[in-house]
């Protein structure tokens, strides 16, 4: 096993090396650095708004708790809210703030990715767990301390969630960063996957490569659909830009307040991209309890004065059903990609068992559509689950797409596209080869 360069502590500036830093300590320092930087990123806009009297006469302790609560939210920790209405007979209302700003969650993820690469360079293959364990313990402790300090009578934080949930984006980023530095899982964890696969039977390898290629095709379909959804979201914002600007002007938050509001909306931009994906599938998404936004119809109640909400398509959508074609096109791309991958071993196995080619071709293509559609549906359900949540108390306790219906709609549409793409793939391949041959043919022939 190759050894990565170990990080050393300098005794002085003369070049003499001191004792090597323990891996658990180095991991803890990397985590502390990432936690402090992510906290400063959250604190900066809050302090800027406070400096322009955006929070009235709120004291520093209120700002510190607000910043800590925001830090917990971008790590996926739910906040349990309690409000009491006016009047002696008013009853307290409870709700949960669990809407995760995926764009801001990238901050701790990228910091952890950097830390994972640094720790991988400083560790032996069989010692990396020490650095990871030390870093995760420190980050969990930082989350627990933040949750304990930032609890108030109106905002409750479960300390277990405050300690464990921040480890999800942070731990994932650290593992991916370490894998990126190591170059392979075998160098990272000491297990050679290629050697393990080589010891399995040929039938197991064929089945594994078939399922792996089908899962990759489902990933291709979701990424393609998400890319088109993001592009259409940008077009929709451009078309309704005058309405968005009108909401900004009505709020009159000033330069600093407007900038902070824009940063918050940018933090939810990946969520909006997933909302757009759900809209294109036909399942739609909710903007409040009992509301529905989709290509087949839109019915929403009163919404907060947030500029991006002004771009929601409303009124009669005569061409709304055309949006359902987008996931089908993504499935066509996935089917063509699977054909080029050349791993349809199930079709080969059926061809050996049955000599009726039209039957085996149809059966294997339908089965492929089922597998790829299911893979795309599972991934879409995960994205919808991450993007949805509750924004507090009242109607806004239900925001985002429904994971189950998003998965069902996308799986069905991608499956239809896979059948078309896999069937048309040979014709597309022959046409590309013919065009390439004509393009390279000598002049005069």
Key terms for this structure?
single chain, 445 residues, alpha+beta, four-stranded antiparallel beta sheet, two-stranded antiparallel ribbon, 16 helices, 10 strands, globular, disordered N terminus, disordered C terminus
Question: Quick recap of the structure?
Answer:
This protein has 445 residues and is an alpha+beta fold. The chain is built from 16 helices and ten strands.
Structure, described:
It is a single chain. This protein has 445 residues and is of the alpha+beta class. The protein folds into two domains: 178 residues, no CATH class; 239 residues, no CATH class. Helix content is 65%, strand content 7%. Strand 1 and strand 2 form a beta hairpin.
Task: Give the strand order of the largest sheet, numbering strands 1, 2, ... along the chain.
Answer: 5-3-4-9
Morphology: globular
Mean pLDDT: 82
By DSSP (H or I, 4+ residues per run), the number of helices equals: 16
Instruction: Briefly note the structural class of the backbone.
Output: alpha+beta
Hey, roughly how much beta strand do the residues contain?
Answer: 5-15%
> Percentage of helical residues?
55-70%
Distance between the termini: 57 Å
Number of domains: 2
Write down how many β-strands occur, each being a DSSP E stretch of 2 or more residues. 10
Q: Spell the H/E element sequence.
A: EEHHEEHHEHHHHHHHHEEEHHHEEH
- Please give the largest β-sheet: 4 strands, antiparallel
Radius of gyration: 27 Å
InterPro entries: DUF6350 (IPR045931)
Pfam families: DUF6350
Organism: Arthrobacter globiformis (strain ATCC 8010 / DSM 20124 / JCM 1332 / NBRC 12137 / NCIMB 8907 / NRRL B-2979 / 168)
Protein name: Integral membrane protein
């Amino acid at each position: 096993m190759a050894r990565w360069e170990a990080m050393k502590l300098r005794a002085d500036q003369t070049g003499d090396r001191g004792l090597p830093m323990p891996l658990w300590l180095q991991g803890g320092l990397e985590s502390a650095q990432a936690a402090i930087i992510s906290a400063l990123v959250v604190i900066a806009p809050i302090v800027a708004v406070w400096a322009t009297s955006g929070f009235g006469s709120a004291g520093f302790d209120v700002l510190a708790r607000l910043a800590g609560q925001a830090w917990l939210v971008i790590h996926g920790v739910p906040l349990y809210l309690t409000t009491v209405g006016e009047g002696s007979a008013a009853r307290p209302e409870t709700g949960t703030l669990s809407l995760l700003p995926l764009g801001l969650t990238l901050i701790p993820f990228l910091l952890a990715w950097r830390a994972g690469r640094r720790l991988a360079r400083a560790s032996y293959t069989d010692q990396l767990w020490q650095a990871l364990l030390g870093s995760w313990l420190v980050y969990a402790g930082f989350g627990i301390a933040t949750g304990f300090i930032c609890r108030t009578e109106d905002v409750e934080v479960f300390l277990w969630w405050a300690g464990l949930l921040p480890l999800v984006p942070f731990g994932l980023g650290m593992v991916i960063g370490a894998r990126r530095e190591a170059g392979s899982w075998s160098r990272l964890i000491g297990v050679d996957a290629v050697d393990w696969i080589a010891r399995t039977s040929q039938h197991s390898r064929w089945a594994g490569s078939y399922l792996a290629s089908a899962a990759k095709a489902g990933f291709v379909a979701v990424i393609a659909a998400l890319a088109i959804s993001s592009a259409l979201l940008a077009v929709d914002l451009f078309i309704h830009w005058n309405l968005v600007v009108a909401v900004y002007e009505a709020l009159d938050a000033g330069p600093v307040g407007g900038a902070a509001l824009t940063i918050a909306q940018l933090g939810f931009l990946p969520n909006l991209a997933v909302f757009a994906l759900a809209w294109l599938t036909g399942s739609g998404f909710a903007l409040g309890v009992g509301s529905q936004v989709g290509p087949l119809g839109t019915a929403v109640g009163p919404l907060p004065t947030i500029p991006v909400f002004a771009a929601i398509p409303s009124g009669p959508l005569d061409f709304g059903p055309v949006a359902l074609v987008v996931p089908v096109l993504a499935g066509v791309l996935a089917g063509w990609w699977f054909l080029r991958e050349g791993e349809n071993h199930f079709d080969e196995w059926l061809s050996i068992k049955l000599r009726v080619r039209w039957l085996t071709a149809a059966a294997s293509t339908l089965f492929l559509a089922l597998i790829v559609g299911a893979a795309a549906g599972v991934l879409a359900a995960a994205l919808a689950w991450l993007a949805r949540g509750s924004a507090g108390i009242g109607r806004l306790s239900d925001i985002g797409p429904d994971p189950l219906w998003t998965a069902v709609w996308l799986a069905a549409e991608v499956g239809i596209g896979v059948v078309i793409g896999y069937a048309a793939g040979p014709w597309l391949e022959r046409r590309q080869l013919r065009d390439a041959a004509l393009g390279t043919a000598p002049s005069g022939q």
